[in-house]
Specification:
The complex is a heterodimer.
Chain A (H helix, E strand, L loop, with lengths): L3 H27 L3 E2 L2 E2 L4 H20 L3 H25 L6 H7 L3 H26 L18 H21 L2
Antiparallel strand pairs in A: 1-2
Helix pairs in contact in A: 1-2, 1-5, 2-3, 3-5, 3-6
Chain B lengths: L9 H24 L1
The chains are: A mainly alpha, B mainly alpha.
């Protein structure tokens, strides 16, 4: 019989699998690996992200000892996806039908799905943070270090920095 | 367990330079495909 923690962990892992599967199917609408009998390498990007989100990350979380690596992969796929989809949303936004182009036809719902996946992963990571601290990992209770590795501030810094580098890439390679 | 890569260590620099190159490339890739 699973403990309360075990049951919550199992539900959160199921949530990651479900949201990862949803993201994979949404990607499949837009990105084809083969289009008009021509191989499109770009189509492999969402497929790789889906393999990480649906298979690798839940497996690492379920194994129990690798929550740090699991959340690093889970959060990075969420951040990179959210950054790229925000770019796509802005690029396709219409001035005449702004709200509709953002909230209904845009990729904001997809970005929010990725954010939900990050929250579930962070929840799973928090369950194991104390145990990881016993092995020399940053102890969240002893240091008020919100910006340390895998803490929420660390994610915020990386979201901003990666967004900035991505934006530079958009403008440099015109 | 994941080994913590301390700020400023060689591994940290390798990881971050690779990540910056990857993000620059992704920005350019999405730019050309959207």
């Amino acid at each position: 019989m699973l403990t309360v923690t075990g049951r919550v962990r199992a539900l959160a892992i199921a949530g990651i699998v479900l949201s990862g599967s949803g993201g994979f199917l949404i990607h499949f609408r837009a990105h084809w690996i083969v289009k008009n009998d021509v191989f499109v390498p770009y189509g492999l990007v969402p497929l790789c992200a889906a393999v990480i989100s649906i298979i690798v990350v839940p497996w690492l979380f379920a194994a129990g000892r690798r929550s740090d690596l699991a959340q690093l992969l889970n959060g990075m796929t969420a951040i990179v996806g959210a950054i790229a989809m925000t770019h796509i949303m802005i690029a396709h936004a219409s001035a005449a039908h702004f709200a509709k182009s953002i909230f209904i036809n845009g990729t904001l719902p997809d970005s929010l799905l990725a954010c939900g996946k990050w929250v579930l992963g962070q929840l799973l990571f928090e369950f194991d943070a104390d145990r990881l601290a016993q092995r020399g990992f940053d102890d969240p209770s002893k240091r008020a270090a919100w910006w340390r590795f895998l803490r929420p501030g660390w994610w915020g810094i990386h979201l901003a920095a990666m967004g900035g580098v991505y934006t530079a890439g958009v403008f440099i390679f015109q | 367990m994941l080994r913590y890569i301390a700020f400023g260590k060689p591994g940290w620099w390798i990881l971050h330079v690779a990540a910056i190159a990857a993000m620059l490339g992704l920005g350019a890739l999405v730019r050309f495909h959207s």
